[in-house]
Amino acid sequence: MSETIEFGQYVVERLKQAGVKQCFGVPGDFNLGKESTPGNLILRLDFVEADPDIEWVGNANELNAAYAADGYARVKGGLAVIVTTFGVGELSALCGIAGALAERVPVLHIVGAPSTKLQSSDSLLHHTLNLPGSFTTFSTMSAPLSCSQALLNTIAPKTPTAWTEAFDKTLKDVLEQCRPGYVEIPTDAFHAKVSAEGLKEALPHPHSAPPPESVAASLPTAGSQATATSTLAAATSAAPRAPSDDVTAHVVQDIAERFKNAKKPVILVDACAGRFGMAGEVRKLVETCGIRFFETPMGKSLLDEHHPLFGGCYAGANSLPPVREEVESADFVLYVGALKSDFNSGSFSVNIDPKITIELHSFTTNIGYAAYPTTDIRHVLPDLLPAFQDVIQSRAASPAEGESADQKIRAGRVESIVPEPKGSEIKHEWLWPRVGKWFADTDIIITETGTSSFGLTNVLLPSHSTYIAQILWGAIGWSVGACLGAAMAAREDKKDRRTVLFVGDGSLQLTLQEIGTMLRRDVHPYLFVLNNDGYEIERQIHGETAKYNDIQLYDHQLLLPFLAGKSCKTAYQSYVVKTPEELNNLLEDKEFNVPDRLRLIEVYMPRGDAPEGLIRQAKLTAEANARI
């Protein structure tokens, strides 16, 4: 490793150190070389293209690229990167970046900007707003959506490490906080010589705890800007978690004492348990201490849903009655990584006594009504098991008279039973249990916001599957871009995992271009398109017969040939199923179950039909609105 390195190469090396192998985005003319002058156009993306260990994916638009980065990061459990051009490109990506912020996904947004010379002279360039000071407008817009920003144009490179320290500060913040970060790089910065010394410092990982002193420093997250003098204590892979400080030790002791006195303890697993890699630690607690556990809709598949101690999916009043009864009658609730959004909590109907609740977050621990904002889930949770050693015993509820222990354990969860279809149409009541039986053990399952995500809430997923859905942010169309990113991540690990998408015909129309990128990149997901003639989730909430919930119907059987064009070498196949028998036969077909091509399965469903969970949620939403 040379003493100095071009800054563009430094960035690529840092991304590789963070585990990135795919780079999403759209090229633009501010992705050019030292100066944007004709005849001297050296693409800064050449740093990516020339590297054998990182691949430029290339997306149809920046919004789709942001969605793809989101899906990639969720499946990898680590960093994803999107590269856009200044102004028009970066603004197109912001809806996807906002979703990553809301749902705690570590996405680094790198923006290619005009040169420092052109910015300092306030030149009237294309992609600007024809207003004074417009070069700072777009980074200012991104600030509330970023945990950290590195604006290199504002940092004088007085030392060889000025820019690398600023870049590293934002990169580390993204990794430690699992939130998006923003780096703006002028065209003349990429070829500037910088110190390579920073490459020797190990990067943190979202699943590794930061030092205790950096937890408090991370609290004011939105919009913080990196400067040339910014520093951050290193968190290396060799030391996965720092020793607990006095506050953390007190928190662990308090939780252990409460657990000792509990008669009916439960663990509730939510989204951030997965974002910060704590699912394995939760499983240790569950199995060692015999504690019943439940998942929220955003926590699905984080633990084995076929485990005998699994009780079901809890979402307040939108839970199955036995699940709701057991969770809400507990006397100790360890709530791991909570995200209490409306759809994740049955319109805020969670009815758990705060006095018996312990919430573990990356930024605080709440015990009853007390909060400890300098503690971190990645410090506290690993220390709970040894603290529980003197109280470890079976916590499964005593079997009721006439019931076996196994029957009692399963009383609060949905059974994997496929009902007989009613009539000749494919309806939600039958569809979701049926596809639940079809899933393979290691499938990556992606559902669009709407009927799909509500349909699978109470279906037991395979023990080693990965489930992703954007339940909090809920941008329709997100799932198609996320499916691309998920499929690219799955191909990296070489475990032959299938990627399966469920998306409605309305949501598909927003982002279907990314199916073309799937074909271009030779990935082979199963794309189940639910054709129910429009926006069914909206109809369930309001406007059952309103025209604004209608869409122009596409001929989905023409999509793959159209998007593949005449030069695509990726195999693909389209299917149409209109009856339970047709879908059943397809799912049982041996050739269909081999992921050797991209498949689009158009599933015709009757308008007005919806999963029970969605119907309940619509009712809860209406009741909540009526109380306002």
Automatic annotation (TrEMBL):
Residues 252-370 form the Thiamine pyrophosphate enzyme central domain. Residues 6-126 form the Thiamine pyrophosphate enzyme N-terminal TPP-binding domain. Its cofactor is thiamine diphosphate. InterPro entries: DHS-like_NAD/FAD-binding_dom, PDC/IPDC-like, THDP-binding, Thiamin_PyroP_enz_cen_dom, Thiamin_PyroP_enz_TPP-bd_dom, TPP_enzyme_TPP-bd, TPP_PDC_IPDC, TPP_PYR_PDC_IPDC-like. It holds the Pfam family TPP_enzyme_N. Residues 202-222 are annotated as: Disordered. It is found in: Mitochondrion. Keywords: Decarboxylase, Lyase, Magnesium, Metal-binding, Mitochondrion, Thiamine pyrophosphate, Transit peptide. Its main location: mitochondrion. Residues 463-587 form the Thiamine pyrophosphate enzyme TPP-binding domain. Belongs to the TPP enzyme family. This is Pyruvate decarboxylase. It comes from Kwoniella shivajii.
